[in-house]
Structure formats: structure tokens, C-alpha cells
Amino acid sequence: MKQHPVKLSNFRPATVLVCGLIVISFRTNASTPESIAAEIRQLCADAPFAMTAPGVPQFPNQVFDIRVFGAVADGATLNTRAITEAIQACKAAGGGTVFIPPGTWRTGPLELLSNVQLRLERGSLLLFSNRVEDFGMIPKPGDEGRKYVVAPPLFASNARNIAITGSGIIDGAGERWRYVLREKQTERQWHELVAGGGIVSPDGKEWWPSRAAMEGQQYLARLEKENPAPSKADYERAREYLRPDLVYLFRCEGILIDGPTFRNSPRYHIHPVQSENIIIRNVIVQTDWFAMNGDGIDLSACRNVVVYRATLDVGDDGLCLKPASIGPQQKPGPACANILIADCVVYHAHGGFVIGSESYGGVRDISVRNCVFINTDAGIRFKSARGRGGDVERVFINRIQMRNILTEAILLDMYYSGGSPEAESAKDRTVRTAESVTDRTPRFRDIDIRNVVCDGAARAVLINGLPELPIAGIRLDSLSIHARQGVTIIDADSITLNQCSIQAIAGPILTVNEGRQVTVNGGVWITPAGASVRIEGPGSSAIRLLGISPAIEYGRGATSGSVVLQ
């Protein structure tokens, strides 16, 4: 029998009572749109640049319970059709809330539509299927060619006024999709993984869920080289390799993500793309630390965004900006702009706050404040490279607490080549050749980082620019960092370190290689052997050391005239 959209007024009396209690429950436990709007206004008012507060999506007061559409919470029934019909009925009725009650609701991919709020009650687990065949192929969003991708578990395209809220859990069954590096497993974990199925790569370094997944990259390379217009069926052969993001919101306007836990994604977890007016608050993002490409929150070409009170523990970058290309519906300008991140905690990630690796498209007017990063590979991590660069400017970072950072507490690296933070940190930086400046040369400037405390890192700060276009206009103010190594500045101009406390196990405490207009103004700079500064490169000049008296070493063409002591 065909099911029709059902509102509360259509239920029998007993059901009205039950559903009425549901409505009261999630209204009582949630902030009102008015209170959220007040918080957002205050956060934006405190930003170091003029920022218009994104509006809070609001929805008609009508509820569409997925059980009415035939959904079954037994953890086995595939509820894709039932939940999809609830979403479609909600939109057709002018919008409202699609309600996910307590229970385990297994499903395939779901598309969120305009004016629909997906609300997950505490005790609910929206569990996406671990059967790859339950995820169809769709045309790649925004691609003018004929490429296809796997439908993301939860996605929206060109939607307006949408929300994902509540206290439930959304699980992407990522273990069915992701490959695993042996180096990130103990011997026991590796043995159990291999014994459970899948396939090991010929070199023994990777585990893949299937041979089709392992060979997918090579297959796609051949396909796109030999066939100018591959079909959907052609791409389906690589479906197991084409891992989707858990939540993918493409060219949407007016987004609220408030409360749920997002975990175990096949790839990135929360990924708005070319979208604007976004609020992400009170979310938890969690996956295995070894999850390949397991980013937490990625903002790609997004504007007017507020992210606050988020808690992340992930396998790749934590809070990340990926500017790239804007959409045709967006006004010209920097791809990532007017973004505020506050009061967040990152327990594990490749970087706590990250910009890159692609910086083309541009970044401007970003505020990150009052966040804690613990056990991340890098703390603040800006990464780009020739051919992937663009303008990154007016970034303000304030009041960041860090502990047990594996590599750099603060890293600005224009030589990123795709490796892990450990691999990137270990690269040789002595041989550098200038190349021609293009529109894809990274330009990082006007960045202000202050009031950072870090208890434990491999290196306090690394600023690693390009010889043809140095990183410029960086102000580091009131840093307090304990690390094995101090501060290294390479190919940079107009760098200020004001009243910083840098304590390192080994010297030199400061290394400047081809640096110009580098000013150290007071602070505490010490190692167990005292403070020493090393200057390298014939281009190093106007290095001013104010209020400190370190031993100074010169190497690789540097001269004593490059340093001014006051």
C-alpha cells in the first residue's frame, strides 16, 4: 500500500501522545534558533574583521517520523527508501523535520533537500551500509565532463535552508572502504586485519578491502587516458576505490549542523563545498587515528562560516580550509573568506587547524581562537606548493593551547608534497632553486598568531617559504613553546616575533636562512646550553635582535652585517 506524508494531526490519539512527547523532547534539549543567533552575533562581533553573522535556518513546525514511512530499527533492514520518502514528503509539504528516533537505522545514501531538517534523537544510530553495491554512481558534482563518483552517504546539492541536528550518531562504515597502512598497525592489529579478509598489496605495505579497490587507481588512470568519454558503467568498476565523504554539501546556502556525532567516514567527514552561510556547532567527529584521508571538518570554497564547540579525533587534518575554485553562483573573490572557528578541541589529527594543501582560489579574513590541540601531528599547519598556490592573507589566530605535538607547533610550508607531517618535517631544506612566479605560486602574507602555549613539540616554529616568493608579513606574538628544536625561518620577509618564550632541548634556538626583516623583540629564548642564533644564506639581512643577547653563528654566505643587536 502506498504511504503518504503524515503530520502529527493525522495520527490516532495514542500516536499523537507518543509523537507529541518526541517533539517536546527534542525541542527541550536543543537551543532555539534565537539563542543560536545571539551566540553567532556575539562571535562575529568579536572577530578581528567585519563579518556578517550567518542566519540560522528555521523550519515549519511539522514532523515526519521515518517509522511512518516503513523504517525499521533492527540494524539489518535497509531503510534507504523509507528515509528518502520521509525527506521528499517533508520538502513537498513546505519543509519541516525528518525525525530519526532511537534505534539502529541501516541505510544507503540519502539526499537532504531544501527546507528539511534531519533530526537524530539521542540513542539513534544512522548506520550507513557496509555493502558497496548499495551506493550508486552519480555524476560528479560541478564537473562539466562525464565523470562519475560514488553517491556520498549523506549529501545535498544546490539546497537551501537545511540542517542536521540532534544528539544521535552518524556512522559511515568506513572500514569497508578505506585502505590501511601496515606502518600504522601493531603486529597483532595487522594480523587480525589480514585474517579478516581483503587483500595485501604486493609490497606488503598496504591492506585493501578488495582487489578492485587496490587496483582502482591504475584502472581509472588507464580509463581516462584511453577513453575521452567514459560511461557510468566504466566508473562502476572502480566504485570500491572511489571512497565518498560522509557528509557532502555541494553549492548549498544556509546550513546548520548542530549536535550529532559523525564517525568512521570512508573519507572526509563533514565537507561543505562552494557553499555559504554555514553554522557548525556542538558536533563530535571521530574516526580511527590511522584512517587514511579521515579529515574532520573541511571547508572547500566556503564563505561566511562559523564553527564552534566542535570536538574532533580523526585520522587526517582536523579543522581544515581547502579554498580551490568557487562555484558559478558565488561572487568573485577569495574562495574561503569570512570564516570564524572558536572553542574547538582536536585530540588527534595531522593538524589541529590547517590551510591547504591547495591554496589556489585564495583565503582571506579567517579567525581561529580559543582552541585546544592535543596529540596532533602538527598544531597550526599551513601547507601549499608550487602549482597549487594562491593568496592566503588576513588570518588571525589567538589563544591556542597545545600539548604533545609530534612535529611543528606552528608550520607554514610552501614545499608540501603530500607526505605525512613526519615525512614533510624530515625533508632536506638545504638545496633550493628559484622558479618562475605564476598565478599558482603560493602567496602567504599578513598572518597574525598570538597567545599560543605548547607543552611539547618536535620544533616550535617552521616558516618555509619559496626563494622566488618568500612568505611575508607574519607576526608571532606571546608564544610560549617547549620543544626539542626552536624556530626555523627560511625564505621569509618581514617576520616579527614579539615577547615569545621559546625553550628548546637543542640549539640553535633560532635559525634564519635567506630571511629578511626578521625582528625578535624580547622574550625568553633558551636551550640547556644557552641561547644561540644561526644565520645562513647571503640574502639574509636586517635581522634585528632586540632585548636578547644570544651567541650568533654565521654560515653558507651569511655575514655579520646581516644582524643588528639592540
Keywords:
single chain; mainly beta; 3-stranded antiparallel β-sheet; 38 strands
N-C termini distance:
86 Å
Percent of residues in helices comes to 10-25%
User: Rg to the nearest angstrom?
Assistant: 25 Å
Structural class based on helices, strands and sheet pairing: mainly beta
| Helix count from the secondary structure assignment | 8
Parts with pLDDT < 50 across at least 5 consecutive residues:
1-29
Largest sheet: 33 strands, parallel
- Note the overall shape: globular
Strand content: 35-45%
Quick check: average pLDDT? 92
How many beta-strand runs? 38
In short:
The chain has 566 residues and is mostly beta strands.
Walk me through what this model shows.
The protein has a domain at 180-236. The radius of gyration is 25 Å and the shape is globular. The model is unreliable at 1-29 (pLDDT under 50). The strands form three sheets. It has a 33-stranded parallel beta sheet that branches. A three-stranded antiparallel beta sheet has the order 12-14-13. It has 566 residues and is mainly beta.
SSE diagram, text form:
Blueprint: H1 13-29, H2 33-45, E1 63-65, H3 80-92, E2 96-100, E3 103-107, E4 110-111, E5 116-120, E6 124-128, E7 137-139, E8 148-150, E9 154-157, E10 160-166, E11 169-171, E12 180-181, H4 187-195, E13 199-200, E14 206-208, H5 211-214, H6 216-226, H7 232-236, E15 247-250, E16 253-258, E17 261-263, E18 270-273, E19 276-281, E20 284-286, E21 297-300, E22 303-308, E23 311-313, E24 319-322, E25 336-342, E26 345-348, E27 351-355, E28 363-374, E29 378-383, E30 391-413, H8 421-425, E31 443-464, E32 471-483, E33 485-504, E34 510-526, E35 532-536, E36 541-546, E37 551-555, E38 563-565
Parallel strand pairs: 1-2, 2-5, 3-6, 4-9, 5-10, 6-11, 9-15, 10-16, 11-17, 15-18, 16-19, 17-20, 18-21, 19-22, 20-23, 21-24, 22-25, 23-26, 24-27, 25-28, 26-28, 27-29, 28-30, 29-30, 30-31, 31-32, 31-33, 32-33, 33-34, 34-35, 34-36, 35-37, 36-38
Antiparallel strand pairs: 7-8, 12-14, 13-14
